[in-house]
Amino acid sequence: MNDPNPTPTPQPVRGDTTIAHRLACPAAHSAAWGPQGGVDRAVRTRLALTVVPVLLVFIALSWRLGTIHIVEHESWARLAERQRTASERLPAPRGPIRGANGEMLVQSRARKIVFADLHVLKAEQKDETARKLAELLDVDQLLLRRRMDLADRRVVYLARNVEPEQAEKVAELKIRGVGFEDTFRREYPLGPLGSHVLGWAGTDGGKEGIELALEGLLRGIPGYRTYERDASRRALSRGGDVSYVPEIHAPQPGLDVQLTIHPGLQHVAEDELDAIMEAYQPKGAVALVLDVRTGAILALANRPAYDPNAPASADPAHRRNRALTDVFEPGSTYKTFIVAEALEKKLFRRNERINCENGAWRVSYRTLHDSHAYGILTLDEVIVHSSNIGAAKVGLRLGIDGVYDAVHTFGFGARTRIDLPGEVSGIVRPKHKWTKDSLLSVPMGQEIAVTPLQLATAYAAMVNGGALLRPQVIQRIANAKGEELYTLRPEAVRQVISAETSIAMREMLERVVLEGTGRRAWCPEYSVGGKTGTAQKVIGGTYSHEKYVGSFCGFAPVEQPRLVCLVTVDEPDKRLGYYGGTVAAPAAKEILRRGLKALNVPPRSGEAQELAEREFRARRNGG
């Protein structure tokens, strides 16, 4: 019987491999999948091309992920930390520099640097930002605006050495993209005083003087701090306005340096040089004061000078430390060393008579002259009256070896090794280049060139008992805790003459002041000795009759020397005076007098001063 609603026979659909279709139409399924029930070759190929690459990519990604998490974990963690955190440098203040009495000569003051991050500061804000900052920082508005347009930089500095109070006012503007850095400004409270010893320091360190010589000790060690930041490089805050700072390394300030320079005595020396510059209008002048017992330099002054607070505004020649860098023929100041060498070698006695040829002596092709027509002089009187002929005859008896020894024994031709940069060794020709003419020229202070520092150091050895001491300018170095790391100790280079010869030379040099060329250095409060020098400058290979270096090197008190003072005057106006006894001796006297008082060296009693004055007048009048 026919079914009125016959069930339709399912028609096989090729490629339909669902479970439902297989159950409903097993015949069709069998026909489509073949007699063995597997997929045909094309289907299997497509499956392989789809599944295998996916599996390989999955395996590679799994391998890489495992490598990152297990093998490379530390390096990736460090990279993430670097991206998440930033480090800020904390500058260290340079160490202070003090005078011998502890007075502050150089200090560092906290300042701010104002900068702009041009990736954060919006273009439409630049004009208004420049206007506001120009008012607060006293900087030209157009200059600020031009800096904000520097396309090759992300961060530009808008103002340096900004006072903290000014920086606070800028911060109150809350300009996004404007920030601050800590810095320090080097300040010299006494201005030009001692500038050639102190030198100066810029943003990248010391440039001259002690600032350069002790750069490694003064500059300190910078610190740093780290903080978290966002993608715009801004510091993140936690717990209100307090920035998260996981790590801080505090900066270590530079060491505390105390110099041998006595500020009061330095003032005196510079005042006297100013008076010389005004009275004689020279090209330059130098004053040096040494403690003969230790080699400590108590004052070192040069003219012209400069203000280390504004070094860029000074002529570079004014920043030169002439006491160390400039050389000159010492002239008659050198005769002292020839005579000392002759006494030391016992080639002369002090009362030995020397024929000074009435002021003119013909020797071979040249004639030597004295400033006055002297006849017979003792060895002492050769120094007292500064006889060229007498000194030359002493040199002849010494011979080339003896004269050369006198040069090098007292340190000429070699650096003194002072703790200041720029020192030169002077000019002394090798002995094999000396001639018989050198025996006449060198004893008169010609044919060699010395620095003021060499000459002052040699005179200190002359009167302190014969010990040549290394000149020193550093008294003490301490760290921020006050722990002493260094203190000055006298450093003897060698013994140049005996104590007996030193006493003899002190007596001779006192006579120079009492009755010779150095009378203008006489002082009633203290006994003073010394030697004048007036040297012709060599211009174009010949001695000039217009340009001179006048000098005087003195010491006091004669009985127990404490200070040596050298004053040199370079090219004074000849019409106003050029002899060392005129242009240099009065200044040296005043520096010695005021210096000894500042060091609390007791002067002569009133009665002794009156007696000394009577004796001085008698000698001056030939009595």
Give an account of the 3D structure.
It is built from 21 helices and 23 strands. Strand 21 and strand 22 form a beta hairpin. It is elongated. Strands 2, 3, 4, 5, 10, 18 and 19 form a seven-stranded mixed β-sheet that branches. Strands 12-11-23-22-21 form a five-stranded antiparallel β-sheet, sandwiched between helices. With 623 residues, it is α+β, with helices and mostly antiparallel strands. The N and C termini lie far apart (179 Å). The protein folds into three domains: 18-71; 87-254, Penicillin-binding protein 2a (Domain 2) (Alpha-Beta Complex), CATH 3.90.1310.10; 263-305 and 317-344 and 379-620, Beta-lactamase, CATH 3.40.710.10.
Strand percent estimate: 15-25%
Main beta-sheet strand count, sense and barrel state: 7 strands, mixed
- Low-confidence runs: 12-20, 30-37, 237-243
Cα end-to-end separation: 179 Å
CATH architecture of the largest domain: 3-Layer(aba) Sandwich
What is the CATH topology assignment of the largest domain? Beta-lactamase
Number of H- or I-type helical stretches: 21
Whole-angstrom Rg? 43 Å
Helix content: 25-40%
**Could you report the average pLDDT, rounded to the nearest whole number?**
88
The CATH superfamily of the largest domain is identified as DD-peptidase/beta-lactamase superfamily
User: Which CATH class of the largest domain is shown?
Assistant: Alpha Beta
Number of domains: 3
Shape: elongated
- Secondary structure tally: strands: 23
Q: Which structural class do you get from the secondary structure elements? A: alpha+beta
